[in-house]
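[scheduler] slot 2 assigned
[scheduler] job type: sequence-to-structure, two independent chains
[scheduler] chain ordering preserved from manifest
[runner] begin chain α
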Amino acid sequence: MVLRVLTAICVAVSAVVHLYLWQDGMKAVDVVGPAFLLNGVGGMVIAVLVIVWRHWLPLLGAVGFGVATLTAFIISTTPSGFFGVHERWVGLPVWLSAISEVGAIILGVAAIVVERRHAPISPAGAALRRG
């Protein structure tokens, strides 16, 4: 459960940063503004699901959230930018978000692995393991 809580915290931190940035001016930017709002709301939903739904799907959602969000930011730092937005690796929101997204990826994968390793084996699965 500790890995799930840490994963949820990472997703929630990134979501809150994106909601803050949306409110702070990104809402006026075409394409990226609505994406920030969707990212913030979606991230909060994923964070809650990671805690309350003891299934691997929310964890996979957290990993996907981290990968997609971090990838979009990295693309925005390239010369061509991301839908006209050009960012740099500068400022607290950038680093807070990037670190939390890396955390969501690593902790989400770790939680999936740990939970799969400790999952109860069904009678059919036990028979298959015995050969």
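[runner] end chain α
[runner] begin chain β
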Amino acid sequence: MYRDIPLAEHTRKAYILLYRNMLSPYVSVTVPVDVTAPYRWCRETGRSFYLAMIHAAALAADGVPAFRQRLCGDFVREYDACPTSHVELGEKGDFGYCTLRHHLPEEEYFDRAENARRQARENISITEDSDADSMYFVTCLPWLSYTQLTLPFDGKSNPRLSWGKCAEDASGRVTLPFSVMVHHGLADGVHIASFYQRLEEETARFSG
């Protein structure tokens, strides 16, 4: 479900008009995030850490209305909730897209997600789903612990979420670099900060 907000009535009308015609209207931030709780939970349960992070990140993004908004000409479409589209690697080093819906009981989410991942790896495709406009675009660089990341962009206003290699310190604390890329017309620093706060809460939930 969604609602359409006429641009003339949107509280960020001036910023949308300012940024939407810029060559690069996006803002990107990378922050080290403590993922000790989901990392340990996944090792104990045998669940996928990748899926745990997608689940936590999507729920955190849903909690920030600006992350659920998309630019659509003379109006802004705000979705009630957004699925994720993430990257799956194929056997030949190629990759394809995999769509997941995270608004499910935890066990059901992981079971459905694992099945979707298998299908995506067996049928590699980079064709976007018909509801791609609503999605959070997710990717991962598990081989690198980076400090900055720039992603390709195509003029769409979907948030892009990505993270890198985990690092464990002497105390057992596990962190990774987590990047957020959003359209600056719809979101700025306060929205990004709210997302990271919610991400911290969602990852901590796995401690139970």
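[runner] end chain β
[qc] chain β: The first strand starts at residue 2 and ends at 6.
[scheduler] slot 2 released
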